Fold:
Amino acid sequence: MRNRDRGRMDVVNVDERDSPEVRNGVFLAQLAAGERMSVQHFRIQPGSGVDDHSHEHEQAGYLVSGEILFTVDGEEYTVEAGDSYVIPGNAVHAATSTGDEAAVGVELFSPPRPNPPWSTDDE
Structure:
């Protein structure tokens, strides 16, 4: 294991974090977090997703593989591997993995969001 205590820098490897299934076919791993943003790794199986929800956090992401259909304030957006995106804070949004393979990516939240509001732990 690499040295994780680097003074002012927090280093977190996705392979060293649990990736619980927070919804059917939706897996999240909470990664590094600072005072003003947090990083999350996600994997969404084809056909799975997250229903409409909103939160104060601005949400920026990068999709490594797969395809996601986002609905943001009633408008649909298709995001493919290699695309990045930003969802404004307080926007009502949903996401569904629509490709033939799992949608895998990384998202940043500002301010930090340690647990999603739709997580099964929060219901």
Remarks:
- The domain at 23-122 is CATH 2.60.120.10 (Jelly Rolls).
- The CA atoms of residues 59 and 87 lie 5 Å apart.
